[in-house]
Design goal:
The chain is mostly helical. It is built from 8 helices and no strands. The protein has one domain.
Length: 251
């Protein structure tokens, strides 16, 4: 009985505040703030990291690509987690906006994952002496990129949006198992890739003078990626809701 009451309350809350129309109104108001604040933070972080941090004792100046690579790698995995969560919300509570968001995240996630792969390859040339190595972390990230592309292709292959959303959501949730594999790949298998410099349980192994701009770059990059997801979601909502009367006032 208690479980039914909780589910009813949650469902009512979600349906009240997550309708496509409400979402459109909220993101229209928030988007400029998120975009300009995020781009300002990221420009500061990149300028700080590229021009004002010292050389690394071992890697020299090549380490500076962390201000591109680390945010992209972190966000690529975070986006998939968000997509899986949104898919679960859609399947459990039948919130159609959640399905729109899941589909919207996929192309942004694929793009960010590609940035992570390319920046990692550039970093690998001076560090490992090769632009590509079938390293556990790199290979598992490549699989994540393929998963994003596969989900996009799968959804596009259906004419029926409801069927596409359901299958997309099930596979997105199942595919979430790839995220802990990526996280633990360096620990589980012999790997050229260095262990994480920042963890929740341990003190960061990176010098604070390099760490602070890295944190800022992650924050700024996250905000810019959020803006891309917003734009992508607006496209999805328009495709699905274009025959509704309310959308004509906001497009």
């Amino acid at each position: 009985m208690l479980r039914e009451i909780i589910n009813t309350v949650i469902k009512k809350f979600i349906h009240q505040f997550a309708s496509p129309k409400t979402y459109f109104l909220q993101v229209k108001r928030l988007y400029p703030w998120v975009f300009y604040i995020s781009i300002a933070i990221y420009v500061v972080a990149i300028t700080w990291g590229l021009l004002f941090t010292p050389k690394d004792f071992v890697q020299g100046n090549s380490y500076r690509i962390i201000y591109f690579h680390v945010p992209a790698s972190f966000i690529a995995q975070s986006l998939y987690a968000a997509m899986a969560f949104s898919s679960a919300v859609y399947l459990i509570w039948k919130v159609k906006l959640a399905a729109y968001l899941s589909r919207s995240i996929a192309p942004v996630g694929a793009t960010v994952t590609l940035i992570a792969l390319i920046s990692g390859s550039i970093w690998g040339i001076p560090t490992w002496g090769t632009w590509w190595e079938w390293d556990a972390r790199i290979t598992s990230t490549l699989i994540l990129f393929i998963m994003y592309l596969g989900l996009i292709s799968l959804h596009n292959s259906f004419n029926n949006f409801e069927k596409a959303d359901k299958l997309f959501s099930y596979l997105a949730i199942i595919g979430f198992i790839q995220i802990p594999i990526i996280k633990k790949s360096v620990d589980w298998w012999s790997s050229l890739h260095q262990p994480a410099s920042i963890t929740i349980s341990d003190k960061p192994s990176i010098d604070p003078v390099m760490l602070y701009p890295l944190f800022l770059s992650i924050i700024g990059f996250s905000g810019l990626v959020a803006c891309l997801v917003i734009l992508s979601s607006k496209v999805q909502i328009y495709k699905r809701e274009k025959n509704k009367n309310w959308i004509k006032d906001y497009v």
